[in-house]
Amino acid sequence: MTDLSNQTVAPKVVQKSRLRVFLDSDIYYTFRRSPVAVVSTIVVTILVLSAIFAPLIASTNPFDPASLNLMNGFTAPMTPNAFTGESFLLGTDDQGRDVFSTILYGMRVSLFVGVAAVLFAMVLGITLGLISGYVGGWTETIIMRTADVQLTFPSILVAMLIFGIAKGFTPIEYRDQMAIWVLIIAIGLSDWVQFARVVRGATLVEKRKEYVEAARLIGRTPYAIMLRHILPNVLSPVLVIATISLALAIIAEATLSFLGVGAPPTQPSLGTLIRIGQGFLFSGEWWILLFPAFTLLTLALSVNLLGDWLRDALNPRLR
Amino acid sequence: MALISVKNLTRVFDVSKPWLNRVIERRGKAFLTAVSDVDFEVTERTTYGLVGESGSGKSTIGRMLVGLLTPSGGTVEIEGVNLATETDAKKVDVIRSDIQMIFQDPYASLNPRWRVRDIIVEPVVARGGDATGLAERLLEQVGLSALDAGKFPHEFSGGQRQRICIARALSSEPKLIVCDEPTSALDVSVQAQVLNLMSDLKDNFGLTYVLISHDLTVVRHMADRIGVLYLGRLVEEAGAEDLFADTKHPYTKMLLEAAPQIDGFGREAALPEGEIPDPINPPSGCAFHPRCPIAKNICTQERPDLREVGQTRVACHFAQ
Amino acid sequence: MSAAVLSIHNLSVEIPTRTGVVKPVDGVSYDIAAGEILGVVGESGAGKSMAGNAVIGLLSPPARIAKGEIWLNGTRIDALKGEAMRRLRGKQIGMVFQDPLTSLNPLLSIGDQLTETMLTHLPISRSEAEKRAVAALEEVGIPGAAERIDSYPHEFSGGMRQRVVIALALCAEPSLIIADEPTTALDVSVQAQIIALLKRLCRDRGTAVMLITHDMGVIAEAADRVAVMYSGRLAELGTVRDVLTQPQHPYTAGLMASTPLASAGKERLHQIEGAMPRLDKVPDGCAFHPRCEYAQDKCRAAPAPQISDSHAACWFPLIAEKVS
Q1: Exposed end of chain C (fewer CB within 10 Å): N or C?
Q2: Which domain holds residue B277?
Q3: Is ipTM strictly over 0.95?
Q4: Chain A hits for C275, Cβ within 8 Å
Q5: What is the pLDDT of residues C218-254, one digit of tens each?
């Protein structure tokens, strides 16, 4: 046996830390070389952090009636108010709320709904995709045909339908509190199909591989094989879809809120702010509409660019 | 004593198109008989070679031996237990841990997201066994370093991965390892390393191998007894020496003649006739008759049974 | 060697990567004469296919020819680009790959593919081309060639497809055929048929063949001369009989000894320890020295000497064992 053991000249290798592995990886290398990816990551990070720490950054809590001064209404950006002399970075709206603060708080709602909806869609889609890919047969047929049928409806329509039904079942006094959660479920339910399809496809590939056979051979349960063996190997396409879906979910939420079926005015998202702002565009108070709209655009665009880059970076055929 | 006993083993695959296509095209179901009526026994601590070209059913037999596929007919008994019908869960578990498999593709047979240590001890841990230091010990036994346990599979070459597969197969202390083309994805110099390792381990651990391969030279080097398959049927079975010294079936002769030889400079081999027929519609009678140089009328009508001629079992009307 | 159809001088192929430039082919030279079959043998990663791809101008970027010359029938072709290269490839070089489906257009009948290729490269009429197409298919042993001329590639079995590919490669009467692992995907019995076919057709027409394979047995039976490659470099070059029976390079010797021989018994196989180095970790000096049982200080310090037809790229060739 001794003549076999010098196959690997074993240097004293310390197990590489996860960070080290990441910094050496091809992904990090392509990341550093792509200005688009770097810039959009920075933008997304700034936006997310400012949404999370909104209470610390914003000068006022715009939804606390006590902090509002109606006299400050319609102040233009960077101009002192004619009555109070106060100046606001991005101006104020009709009720004297600081637009900058409303954007921060609105982004909070938008991001929370987007992320939660994508997580919900992801969990649902991965579960159903894994099961239909691994089990096959009638289970697969039922799940995937349901997905096909759902895909023939535009997702906004599906979300509005779900939103409408849920609203009908909710007592009036709880509607505002429920609205956010209904939004999340509505957007999530209209979004799971993509995850399920991709995960099913990847599962079909992985389950034929010999490491899965090796696990079946020793009598591991289908549950253990799906979770421990297949799941970690189908996650990279899921990551790409999750990022791109996040951008879409944020826009879907804004659309629903803009149409008035989304976040309530007491808890406005960017979409609600845009809806409120559009009434003032032609009366000259452009800032109430344009600043939230620009924020939404920047957020959705940079998340989307990040997703695009991720898709290219994780696609081995392009490398 | 026979460790494996295979009787009338048959496996049929449904290769029909989906239901709707069949209705529209007015076609019936289509079946592929990948293995039919195969009998053999494997003695403990020997190596049994299964040889055949594509469509011979050799891999299907291997998968039925380890329980990855259930037979359509016939039985596989390992130490007297039939895994497909045995209901005693304890017995099944004991037999399961006695059987392991090594696969052809060293790149697909290790989970890329697992560390080598976890891969190797999985057969033990899955049964709730204690695996402290086991991976390190096994890695050294297969000629790798204990320090490799913390690495991921992509850090290894094809030959090293196959060693890791062998270490995993050994971890549950099996009696039988089914090796499905264990070296056909490897380069010649690495193949030699793996074959030597397999021989060493067989002696050290008292293993029994079933070696499935298309490569006659590899099987000849390793096996004690060899079964030759053609279109799902065993056509000849003999001890390794007898098979090569006194070849009885015309198909085996053809295979031996056709295999390229590294000392066959400018050899003009007698060329094989035709190609392997479609296994969905195999030829009548003896499946080999359209390619057989000695085929007579009887071969097109009557399928020869596997019969004993000396030490050999052969399925040919004219073998003697 | 003046009659060489293909002549490669000191060819190097480079691929720039983020950690530096790797050389999958490093200073390789060989000639192939008309009617000769040169076997190029080596293990995976030895650069044997990359050298073939460089000749036909099919290196996929960022891989590029870094230095050296490639001459085909007295014309230098390594600097040819685009259209000129494509015309030359179709007319003068035929290709046979491991997977026949990569060389056949699935949407055209094989008859169309053959006639189109001939019409592009030969000064003949369409009816003449169609006649020749049937003849070409008969020659490669397709039964009922006249009836099957309108069949599509998917209607043939793997072995038959490879025969069609050979007919296609030869129909424009090229002077060189590059066959890259032509039989690796085929069964043993079909492999023998294809190799015999390739051998017969090229002998008859005086076509030069570069036969790239990992299988020493195929080389022994088919090739006239053999080039053994290791880690992008030539290890040994010579007639098949010389190289295989009296290898001078320890790598060739090790390869031969590690092949399970049909005639040998069950004794342990000879082992070359380790594996071919990765392209970005090729050791200094002779690339084979870490695995070589005869390695000395000189092998670690200086690159192996230039190869020629009479000696291998080794400081200490195994001449002592040579009996002649």
Answers
A1: C
A2: 247-259+272-320
A3: no
A4: 7
A5: 899 899 999 999 998 999 998 998 888 888 899 998 8
Domain total for chain C?
A: 1
Please report how the helices A192-207 and A137-151 are oriented relative to each other, as an axis angle in degrees rounded to 10: 150
Residues of C in contact with A27 (CB under 8 A): none
Between C304 and C54, name the one with better pLDDT: C54
Sheet of strand C20-33: strand arrangement: C20-33, C4-17, C64-72, C75-76
Q: Where are the alpha helices (DSSP H) in C93-157?
A: 110-121, 126-139, 145-148
CB within 8 Å: C18 and A6: no
The CATH number of the domain where C179 resides is what? Answer: 3.40.50.300
pTM of the model: 0.85
Nearest CA-CA partner of C161 in C89, C103, C93: C103
Q: Give the CATH class of A109-319.
A: mainly alpha
**From A68-77, B37-46, C80-89, the region with the lowest mean pLDDT:** A68-77
Q: Residue C273 and residue A6: Cβ atoms within 8 Å?
A: yes
Instruction: For strands C64-72 and C4-17, give the pairing.
Output: antiparallel
Inside any domain, residue C182: yes
Beta-sheet pairing, C93-96 with C75-76: unpaired
CB contact under 8 A, C273 and A29: no
Do the Cβ atoms of A96 and A71 come closer than 8 Å? yes
- Statement: residue B139 has pLDDT above 90: yes
Q: Indicate the residue of A218, A224, A229 with minimum beta-carbon distance to B96.
A: A218
Q: Look at residue A16 and tell me whether its pLDDT is greater than 70.
A: no
**Model confidence pLDDT, tens digit, residues B243-288:** 988 999 999 999 888 888 887 787 777 778 888 888 888 898 999 9
Which of the residues C202, C259, C270 would you substitute to probe the B interface, choosing the one with the greatest number of B C-beta atoms within 10 Å?
Answer: C259
